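Anyone have tokens for ABC transporter substrate-binding protein? Sequence:
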Amino acid sequence: MSVVSLSILFLFLTACNSNSTVSVSVAEVTRSLFYAPQYVALEKGFFEEEGLEIDLQTTWGGDTTMTALLSDGADIALVGSETSIYVYAQDSKDYAMNFAQLTQTDGTFLVAKEPQPDFEWEDLKDSNFLGQRVGGMPQMVGEYVLKQHGIDPHHDLNLSQNVDFANIPGAFSSGDYDYVQLFEPTASVFEKEGTGDIVASFGEESGQVPYTVYMTKQSFMDQNEETVQKFTNAVYRAQQWVQEHSAEEIAEVIHPYFEDTEIDMLTASIDRYKQQGSFATDPILDEKEWGNLKDIMNEAGELPADVPYDELVNTEFAEEAISD
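Reply: yep, here.
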């Protein structure tokens, strides 16, 4: 084969390689418009433009999501950062590393069964309260906020925590509960239907925390740095897009992921999250947020180890994405 032919073959193979698509499996802890930037990245083609083909699976719960990640059932997990601390405390040899933050506040709202235009936190005392899963971020943040208002959730409430995450809305509707923590759009749907009244936001009350973060095993990160970087680039582009567009525009884009919810309801819910700053504006998980997370876990009695920030957080990919 001539030198010219070899050169042409090399250029052809290089071009094919540069246009190749890398498949990445992502496990999301639940399907929620709280994760609107992720669906924007998918629908606007930001992952595709980075050469990534995303296989998105909803794994319904922190435990199952982390099992999928640690057993190689997923390359990347979108889940609360607290799960990486739980894995670390189990002496894992292959840590789950947080590399890109998606949401930076709690995403739940306090919903009362009856209208309460003059709601005070004191009203919760002696009520039947349907809480979230023990050890999960919604429950820990909920307890943290209640304690800030002088309420001991385990002594001042009739607290129930025995309902699976996916069944909480139905249990509240049909059960003898006075209050519940709900994500959007369920909270707004209940309010519109007259089956609930949104009286407070846990996100506004608790401040910034690394509530939902993309993480991957240290081994995957070491072996696939370019893929992780491209993934983070796409996430950041989506975060910028969400900041620059209206709630209605965002709702139109992500509607395919919530076909059973009307556009106006999606718009109202997204606007709530935008107004309280729930969507992270960049993928960097900073040290102050990590400290807030540990404080909340410690207050709930769920912090298994005082894990240093540098042990489980890698901001290099996020910083690179922002600098481009």
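Residues 108-206 form a domain with the D-Maltodextrin-Binding Protein; domain 2 fold (CATH 3.40.190.10).
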